[in-house]
Amino acid sequence: MKRWTVGEARAKLPELFKAAGREPQRVFRRREAAAVVVSPREFEELSALKIASCQETLSDAFAELRELDGGLELVPRRDRKNGFADGDR
User: Fold this and answer.
1) How much is the pTM?
2) Domain residue extents for the chain
3) pLDDT tens readout for residues 45-80
């Protein structure tokens, strides 16, 4: 992966884009990474991967609740009759 300064990147923009089609290109400003230029295909792949890894499924949420293992205390309601709890169906 080639390292470019901001000045080099500006002066050789077409070359930077062409190189990004082969592999990501890092652009630095004062020895600090300022940007990474990647091909559109690679960007789409990375975006899809990020979205897929961030989406929690309902199954994941239930698994997390099961791990609490009784950590939530359920207090019975006292303000009204509960036919399900009392067996009055």
Assistant:
1) 0.57
2) 1-40
3) 999 988 887 777 888 877 887 777 666 666 776 787
The pair of three-digit structure tokens given for residue 66, joined into one six-digit string: 């099961």
DSSP the chain: --EEEHHHHHHTHHHHHHHHTTS-EEEEETTEEEEEE--HHHHHHHHHHHHHHHPPPHHHHHHHHHHHSS-SPPPPP-SS--HHHHT--
pLDDT tens-digit series, residues 4-54: 999 999 999 999 999 999 999 999 999 999 999 999 999 999 999 888 877
d(CA 3, CA 13): 13
* Residues in CB range of 29: below 8 A, 6 or more apart: 5, 6
1-40 has which fold?
A: YefM-like fold (3.40.1620)
